[in-house]
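Dear colleague,

As promised, here are the two records you asked about, laid out in our usual form so they can be pasted straight into your sheet.

NAME FIELD: protein one
SEQUENCE, THEN STRUCTURE:
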Amino acid sequence: MGWLDRLLGRRRPRPIPPPLWQQTVARLPFLQWLPAADLARLQSLSEAFLAAKQFSGAAGLEVDDAMGVHIAAQGCLPILNLGLEWYDDWVEIIVYPDEFVVPRQEMDPDGVVHEYDEVAAGQAWDGGPLILSWQDSQMAGDGYNVVIHEFAHKLDMINGAPDGLPPLHPGMDREAWVAALDGAYDDFLARVERAEARGEEALEQLPIDPYGAEHPGEFFAVVSESFFEQPQVVAAEYPALYAQLALFYRQDPLARAQAAGSSRSR
């Protein structure tokens, strides 16, 4: 049995081998901004996550140790200062080699139901599994992060359908959250519509993935990707929303990125 297999067979966490953890951090530049103490806490949280969750490969994929740790480290970053209990209501992670097909149903204004297949890189089921494309999971680091995206959906689902309003902490102002999210979403939707009118190149130049224009819930997940990977973009484009995300996640990725950059420059 491999290390991950042995680990998943027990509820008590087992240490991630240091070379594997170092390799994982080296592949994810936004983790390198974390101070040493926070990085150690992320490792411990990832170990507890691996002990609590079940990984399944799909379409012939075998999930090995490196894959499991790679996903766990990214998925646990949003809850670094929240706790593993935020992921308590689900267990399984299904990993496909690449994008996969999801059957969809949609009702048009006349009440006719249309069935179609949609190609997806990730999917989160309310109370059920989280599904990822391994190929896309490796694309992290440039503002696109399917792992953080789907884990953000899981947080959003704790209090109902994913609508961009996860359960806020005591002391957070719901009206301030809604105003920041809705204001940013409306502005982003208008920007995407203008870019679509100009063509594909204009869409690619947007600072945030245009998929966020699909729905406020998708916008929250997409902005969460950028918040952790390219915090300077969110802080510059939507400072009020950045402030709310920092309160919710109890993290300030921009400050730690700047601190890490300053440390390296000395």
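NAME FIELD: protein two
SEQUENCE, THEN STRUCTURE:
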Amino acid sequence: MLVTTPLDPGWETQATPVWASLDAFLAEVGPRAFRFAEAGLRHRDDALDAVQDAMMKMLAYRERPAGEWTPLFWSILRRRIIDLQRRARFRLRWLRPAGDMVDADDASIDWADPGVGPAQAHEQREAYARLVQALRALPARQREAFTLRVFEELDVATTARAMGCSEGSVKTHLSRARQALQSQLEDVR
């Protein structure tokens, strides 16, 4: 069900989903949050941990209005991903011998529709793998802006709140991400 509610005083009203409970919200956002975390962390188990941690932290906010849950959840998840990235860089810096580079790309999740034929499923997996690779090549802020605006379909104001930056910064990061992805994925269209 959609209702129109003001997000903050002075902001325009917009249609925001209202969930029956926080559990319903988390169930709906879970798969998308996992894909977002996996693109940022490049490791399935770390992505699962980040999403689970963000969901656990959301329990403290269950009394907040449902309209606040979306930017709050994405902000919590984003901060958790950044924390995990910093820890991984720190560990890698101290544990890896100089010059030793290990391929960080793990097997991607197969999001292909099981009802399609083998050739089409293969093409979808390849296209998805190229998209994930292109997203991983983007700077973190551009990747976040693109994922939240395009995949999650959040508006600019909500994305800005989730990312902790201005609306203009969101638009700039999104524009740069689109240009970079377009040049990297021209042959996939």
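A couple of things worth noting about protein two: The first strand starts at residue 2 and ends at 6. The chain has seven helices and two strands.

Best,
R.
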